[in-house]
Amino acid sequence: xxxxxxxxxxxxxxxxxxxxxxxxxxxxxxxxxxxxxxxxxxxxxxxxxxxxxxxxxxxxxxxxxxxxxxxxxxxxxxxxxxxxxxxxxxxxxxxxxxxxxxxxxxxxxxxxxxxxxxxxxxxxxxxxxxxxxxxxxxxxxxxxxxxxxxxxxxxxxxxxxxxxxxxxxxxxxxxxxxxxxxxxxxxxxxxxxxxxxxxxxxxxxxxxxxxxxxxxxxxxxxxxxxxxxxxxxxxxxxxxxxxxxxxxxxxxxxxxxxxxxxxxxxx
Length: 267
Description:
The protein is an alpha+beta fold. A hairpin with a 5-residue loop joins strand 8 and strand 9. It is elongated.
């Protein structure tokens, strides 16, 4: 149908060109064979055919789109229902991919917790991971059978649902003084002056108050052993930090089993 319409459109264009030169060649009826009659008849025909072609193309596109969406939905459905039987590395990779494709108000990372175990409400066992870097460490579950991602935040819920409800609304940080683009951005209140490091049994560093008001900061770190298990926390607090001022924090690490640490948050 589209090809026929295209040919008719081309024919009407040719008729217009010829008619403007010699109207009598394209108008074989009536006594008045003039250029205005050529434009009225063949111009009108061109417009009608062009509209018809557009409507035909839109209809076909909607059908193709509808068919494509149904196919995609079927693939997604099939993937989500298929048993994948993940191992620990695959589960962590799946979670890391999710983290990498989502924005957070501060730098976050994941670390293994206590392996695979059974949770209420799940038919299969789940691998457990810690999501650190937010105001507190979150327990993440990866279903070993179908790869589903969940969070145990007082109650177990889908990870994406939790993100959209509690994290995404707080990602309005792109206009905050441009600090996020410097690599030193922490959140809307603070930025790094000196990033954390370990010295003589303490996690040390410097932060700056960028909030335009006085703050009373507490900075926290999660502590891990050589197996990646969290075995404690370290923190330091300051009674008052005025806007624009810098604080040199010093969080004590007094557990000899600690081999690594992760920034958990500051408020």
